[in-house]
Amino acid sequence: MEDWTLRWILGQAVSLTALALCIVAFSSKRDDRLFVILVFANVAFAAQFALFQSWVASGISALIVLRILLARRYPSHAGIMVAVLIATLAIAALTWSGPRDIPALAAGLLGTYGMFMLRGIAMRAVLAGAAFCWIISNLLAGSIGGSIAETLIFITNVVTMQRLRRDALLHGTP
Fold first, then answer.
1. 49, 57 in Cβ contact below 8 A?
2. What is the DSSP letter of 4?
């Protein structure tokens, strides 16, 4: 078990803040609201991972803030998506500490593709895959709150996809 250092306690507290923000974001059926709230949640995740000295995860979480803003402004723009993918790989290369960084890298790459190229249910499905990778990354970093947050994000994402499917069926759109 981790020592109860101030840094560890702060990391857990910040991860709980991210948890609250993510649940609100992923329970929204509106993509624009999802993106705005995720900006704030990823600031919290970046700080949490820094407190746990998980530098690849921290750097990618910080980059996700920019990615969200760019994906909202330039949806489906392959060139900007590729630039963000390259930046994600660069952050990983510069801060790499070993195999424990693979899940954060996978989450960053999946999330980038999903946010730029997909919308609605398809976007949330890819973001659910990214959330699964973040669950692993949080477990490896020792984040109790972050692990719970990403597990709940995954579940909330799946439930929201079902809600969107139900709404589409009720309104006669496939």
1. yes
2. -
